[in-house]
Amino acid sequence: MIETLFEPLQYEFFRNGLLAAAMTGAICGLIGVYIVLRNMSYIGHGLSHSVFGGAVVSYVMNWNFYLGAGLWGFLSALLINSVTKRKKIGADAVIGIVTTASFAIGVALISRVRKFTRNFEAALFGDILGVTPDDLIVIAGVSLLSILVIFVLYKQLLFTTFDPEVAKVYGVPTDWIDTAFALILAATIIASMQVMGVTLIVAAIVIPATTARLLTHNFHRLVFLSVGIGVLCGVGGMYLSVHLNASSGATIVLFAALLFALAAGYDSVRRWWTRPGASEAGWVPVSHEHSHQHGDILHQHEHPSLRDTEHSHHPTAELPGAEPGGGTAVAGNGVRHVRVVVDGMTCSYCARAVERAVGRLEGVTAVRVDLPSRTADVSLEGAAPTPERIRQAIRLAGYQAVE
Questions:
Q1: Is residue 103 within 8 Å of residue 52, measured between CB atoms?
Q2: Distance between CA 80 and CA 388 in Å, rounded?
Q3: 304: enclosing H helix or E strand
Q4: Predicted structure pTM score
């Protein structure tokens, strides 16, 4: 086993390729988190094909590969980002036009000048074993630059990712944030072309983040998991390439796809195991996560399944004349009114989720949720559910009902 791991390391081309695959996997995993959460995988796919045209033009014009492909990629990213702001044209249509046109330019030039066809097989499918020290410097530079930009714009980028409309209200320059992210994505694709090729690079960006998304609902764990999975896929795919005598780009993607399949299977088993049964009166969700704004700071919270009511940012409201956590009153017409304090509500979406969960119960005639006081006033009639049944329905919705 140890010999299998260390034997390929005696070759310099393998060491260079392994380092390139690890760095590419890390930066693709990091960028992929935002790509997946923003539902932007089609943009990554489109930009990767668009950059191919710039790579061919740079070769024909005798320019530096990274200079030509970089300028082309950045212009494509800016064009796609600006045109998609117009409501008359869909983002998918714009990406389809720009990327296919760029790719067609590359194909047309290749068909005209056939002497460099083999070089562009590497651009299409990757040639990780041909990575040079200069390529490693470029990949490392792009990785550090991308990490720096994400670190500096962390709060704004996170806010824009989860709720772009609200981010605008709070004064976040969402257009500039989207443009900066598109340029980072283009730079990552250009730096990774030598490793993965334009046909496979989008898989290296999307699969690690999607796999990590199946394993956690916490944003910070998601980032670290995605980066770790990206590195693991790069290293594991390289070793598979050596032992299977197959293309390294393909083995990296296949290794990533295998990890995704395992994670999907684990997620399915976990969901089945923790599903609420009819007799499981005390079942509560594993966790509930939400993000919200305090001033100029965006918070990301994950509440565990325990009755987690001691959050300083969620002060517990008390019902006047009742015990803390809720109260019951009976009207003269026989309609009962129950007030329950709900912990974890931060927005109108949360309020609607609680209203829907409680409103489905038999005997509930009305549900009114007051977000500022975090209370739910429930009107009951006839064979109405008990207060404990109401609290259970709220827990099933992913929130905590204070008793």
A1: yes
A2: 53
A3: strand 297-304
A4: 0.66
How far apart (Å, rounded) are the C-alpha atoms in residues 106 and 76?
14
Encoded tokens for 174: 């969402």
Same structural domain, 121 and 251: yes
Contact assessment for residue 269 and residue 252, using Cβ atoms and an 8 Å cutoff: no
- Quote the domain boundaries for residue 12: 2-271
**Domain final residue pick, 225, 250, 271:** 271
Alpha carbon distance 297, 224 (integer Å): 21
Give, in order, the Cα–Cα distances in Å from 51 to each of 19, 55, 97, 105, 112.
23, 6, 14, 11, 19
Residues 95 and 235 in one domain: yes
Whether residues 35 and 121 fall in one domain:
yes
Calpha distance 118→94 (Å, rounded): 31
CATH number, residue 343: 3.30.70.100
Sign of the Cα pseudo-torsion (311, 312, 314, 318, in order): positive
Sign, CA torsion 204/206/107/179 = negative
The helix (H) or strand (E) run that includes residue 53 is helix 41-60
In CATH, what number is assigned to the domain containing residue 234?
Answer: 1.10.3470.10
Tens place of pLDDT per residue across the chain (403 aa): 677 777 778 888 888 888 988 999 999 999 999 988 887 777 777 777 778 788 778 777 777 777 777 788 888 888 877 776 665 666 677 777 887 888 888 778 777 766 554 456 666 677 777 788 888 898 899 999 999 999 998 888 888 887 777 778 778 888 888 888 888 888 888 888 777 777 788 888 999 999 999 988 788 889 999 999 999 999 998 888 888 888 788 888 899 999 999 999 988 888 787 655 544 444 444 444 554 444 444 444 444 444 443 344 444 333 343 334 445 555 555 678 888 888 877 777 678 788 888 888 878 888 888 877 888 888 887 766 778 888 888 887 778 887 5
Residue 112 tokens read as 């005209």
Inter-residue contact 357 to 397 (CB < 8 Å): yes
Number of domains in the chain: 2
Q: At what angle do helices 387-396 and 348-359 cross, to 10 degrees?
A: 130
Looking at the structure, tell me whether residues 47 and 143 fall in a common domain.
Answer: yes
CA distance 9 to 15: 6
Is residue 17 within 8 A of residue 131, CB to CB? The reply is yes
In a domain, 288, yes or no: no
Quick one: which of 184, 179, 244, 256 has its CA closest to 21? 256
